[in-house]
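Consider the following assembly input.
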Amino acid sequence: MAEAVTPTPLLKDELDIVIPTIRNLDFLEMWRPFFQQYHLIIVQDGDPAKTIKVPEGFDYELYNRNDINRILGPKASCISFKDSACRCFGYLVSKKKYVFTIDDDCFVATEPSGKKINALEQHIKNLLCPSTPFFFNTLYDPYRGGADFVRGYPFSLREGVPTAVSHGLWLNIPDYDAPTQLVKPLERNTRYVDAVMTIPKGTLFPMCGMNLAFNRELIGPAMYFGLMGDGQPIGRYDDMWAGWCTKVICDHLGLGVKTGLPYIYHSKASNPFVNLKKEYKGIYWQEELIPFFQSVALPKDCNTVQKCYIELSKQVRAKLSKVDDYFVKLADAMVTWIEAWDELNPSPADLSNGSSK
Amino acid sequence: MAEAVTPTPLLKDELDIVIPTIRNLDFLEMWRPFFQQYHLIIVQDGDPAKTIKVPEGFDYELYNRNDINRILGPKASCISFKDSACRCFGYLVSKKKYVFTIDDDCFVATEPSGKKINALEQHIKNLLCPSTPFFFNTLYDPYRGGADFVRGYPFSLREGVPTAVSHGLWLNIPDYDAPTQLVKPLERNTRYVDAVMTIPKGTLFPMCGMNLAFNRELIGPAMYFGLMGDGQPIGRYDDMWAGWCTKVICDHLGLGVKTGLPYIYHSKASNPFVNLKKEYKGIYWQEELIPFFQSVALPKDCNTVQKCYIELSKQVRAKLSKVDDYFVKLADAMVTWIEAWDELNPSPADLSNGSSK
């Protein structure tokens, strides 16, 4: 291929970029060389009367609250309002195999060499190569150029498992909770760690939704961002909730979750006082939620993400309602989410049966 | 402190550097600025009649096979001969709280900036700050300058647990098994990953003995490098064995294991044909050993490393003898090792009772 020809971007027709927003999407200008050939799904939060400007030349569909209500009807109750948790509506309506989601205050980061980082390309690489959740490789991703499995790594585990999730990181403003933001207002992440790694089976992690990609076919129905924001007692735990559920289900189904590269440049710290108000219940609830998720066991016959998720919703209702009534509502919403997912994403079998469930 | 004054090195009187060798220790010249103020324990392998030259100015004690036999008597049978596994004799005779062990083909590595890496200093930092085995922190070591726990990390887990092991990595020649060496003879590790991380609870890893530090008080008796080399059916699994045992015991006792920085420069690839001969049994045995270690459960009353290790030896005998008779011998040697450890390292209680066991 001649140098002058722009190479076809990876998975151009198999990936949607999902962006939740309340403002004009000027940030896309910076991403133009990397995103312009992909399809965007914009989920407009807040006042549906407001017009969100999208820079010219991008291929997108945009949904505001009226669209969500129209498309989902009563099931729209499972989609959060006035919280970036609404982004998961984009996962629901996507028809692609892969999703990349990014916040509108995230810019293109640079490598130490000064090279601009194509975050999407790295996510795709992460998703297309296997994960190794059953044993730790000390030289990080064994599938990367210049690396491999080290001495003592069992050969039977070297094929790895399919990767469901690629969790990217952030330079500049780190993703801290409100108390840490308050204590360290000036801390910036300047350390570029040149690694991608699999999070081992059985280990939970704090999944941030700012710079995240996943295989929608493998794990989509678990990527529900919960009930946050307007009318809810909690915010800023949408991605955490999705991360705990997703990891537990990936572990059960033998799928991989990676974290590390790519970095984006996170430009703007959110207001720590506002965040504290959103987070404070989560901060003490999570002390009970984490042990719950660490001990969740899914039965063997849960062999699809949907079945796992419904089973998880039952356990949430049974075991977390004592933490707060909110978890009963959340368990209901988890079920509604799966119903909405199946309605908008009928399986080939459903279609051939002519059933619309 | 004025610039001209050499600062007192960290833990100068609390750390021994253990080096197994069969040759003159010229490699120490390169390490002089970093090691000279520490005490060295040199374990001479092979012919005890040979004289090993140590560069001038180093403070050391040296043990050859005659010394090992004299000091341990019949228990010397647990110390390998003609294999770097003999290094664990140095752990036995050390009287210090910390041990750093390094191979004599490891040189000082450089950071991407060109700065020489003080590997020992980084190991000490790793050992002196806590580990976080119960939940994954996506920004790596939360105790490092410029980093912290990210949003969603439970506050109850932020104190961490004591760190027992610091596992360092290698630039240049990676630590590959013989098959990988044969397939990729020219592969060199040039990727400097600027991270230290805790290996999560419940996850095993391939521990390499080339560049390794540990808290001898916390985990010393588990750092037995097994029966390798002369008269044994296997080699190059000494550190792997120690790593599996150590990790299982650290998990049980709530201790941390870190991996990542510091790097050393590994200068010389060992002969892959010789390695293949040493390793081939290990390569198929490990397919049964890993599941064994992944499912080991230690009873609650195993509340010391010694008790854990004796219990582990029983399980090795009961469950691995079907793999090969070698594991019966190894289980015996594990018990002998603990007897030798207790003899050379009587607890204060033993001393005050006047008992020498």
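Chain B touches chain A through 57 residues (CB under 8 Å). Ask yourself how this observation constrains the way the partners meet.
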